[in-house]
Amino acid sequence: MNDIPVSAGLSFVKMHGLGNDFVVLDGRRSGLRLDSRRVAAIADRRSGVGCDQLFVLEPPTDPSADVFMRIYNSDGGEVEACGNGTRCVGALLARETHDPSVSIQTVAGVLQSVVERDGRVKVDMGQALLDWNRIPLARECDTNHVPVAAGPLSDACCVNMGNPHAVFFVPDVSRIDMRAVGPVLEHDPMFPERANIGVAQVLSGDPKAPRIRLRVFERGAGLTMACGTGACAALVAASRRGLVPRRAEMVMDGGSLDVEWLADGRVLMTGPVSISFTGTLDASLLA
To answer: CA-CA distance, 223 to 103, in Å (whole number)?
Structure first.
């Protein structure tokens, strides 16, 4: 693909899923390549549009997919997966195609998105990976009890949901300074590709109405209002430890997601999405 001409403006859509916000760019017809500097400039909340992640839509290379979604964190680094972002792009493409079902190719694989009758969007996030070398960890260990710690946090449960997650269970999420412990744990030597750090509190283990409070410090993005892959990882971790059944309401700063870990290992995530605004990037952000 060719670099974008610096003289050209570029249309974008700003979306969010529970406050986890994204800038979506369409590069399907005219080749679009962004380097990390340009991504970080667009994602900057003071001088750019501002977002947790930026997506570039491209033609798919898998014939079963409708689109390829390239994912960048706000620091400009490319990453493999984004659950809330997949739901947002699924809703956007469903409006475009007038078909509630969309197949979205990512670096982590092809994900299926469906807009339900109530307007919420469900995404099949694929298999939760639990082997130490697929998360990945730096050395072999029990991924249900990983020996990493910082401040009051210890004894992580690690899960790969297209990207690596470490989940810590605590009595009270509000007492954890995520901005202090998050960067330390993200860069722990146990995580060769860094990790997203989740802190979870079981509000209810009642099988009829299980609820988990969750906050996530995302690698390359920091503390976010919500994290889709983090919600999936936390539900899997809580279920592995017998704290909740295989389906629960995941309560984050921006709202709730319904997450279910199926018997075959796949994880389904359902929740609302919103379009915030549309616009055109000034050429100075692309220079």
So the answer is: 29
197: left (phi over 0), alpha (psi -120 to 50) or beta: beta
Q: For residue 229, give every residue at least 6 positions away whose Cβ sits within 8 Å of its Cβ, in sequence order, or none.
A: 81, 82, 83, 125, 161, 162, 163, 165, 196
Residues 261, 160: one domain? Answer: yes
Q: What is the dihedral angle through the alpha carbons of 117, 121, 122, 126, rounded to the nearest 10 degrees? A: 150
Based on the fold, state whether residues 85 and 155 are members of the same structural domain: no
Distance, in Å, from the CA atom of 254 to the CA atom of 282, rounded to the nearest integer, reads: 29
| Domain encompassing residue 226 | 127-270
Instruction: Return the residue matching tokens 């995580």.
Output: 191
This prediction has a pTM of 0.92
What pLDDT score was predicted for residue 8? Answer: 53
Averaged pLDDT score across all residues of the chain: 94
Three-state DSSP state, 210: coil
Q: What is the pLDDT of residue 286?
A: 80
Q: Which residues are catalytic?
A: 82, 227
> Is residue 206's pLDDT more than 90?
yes
99 falls within a domain: yes
Q: Which DSSP string do the residues of 10-55 spell out, in sequence order?
A: EEEEEEEETTEEEEEEE-SSS-----HHHHHHHH-TTTS---SEEE
How far is 238 from 167, CA to CA, in rounded Å?
Answer: 9
Alpha-helix runs per DSSP H in 130-220: 178-186
Domain count, the chain: 2
CB-count exposure of residue 73 (10 Å: 0-12, 13-18, 19+): buried
Residue (of 272, 270, 17, 268) closest to 126 by Cα position = 268
Under 8 Å between Cβ of 193 and 273 = no
Per cent of the chain over pLDDT 70 is: 97
Say how far apart CA 181 and CA 179 lie, in whole Å.
Answer: 6
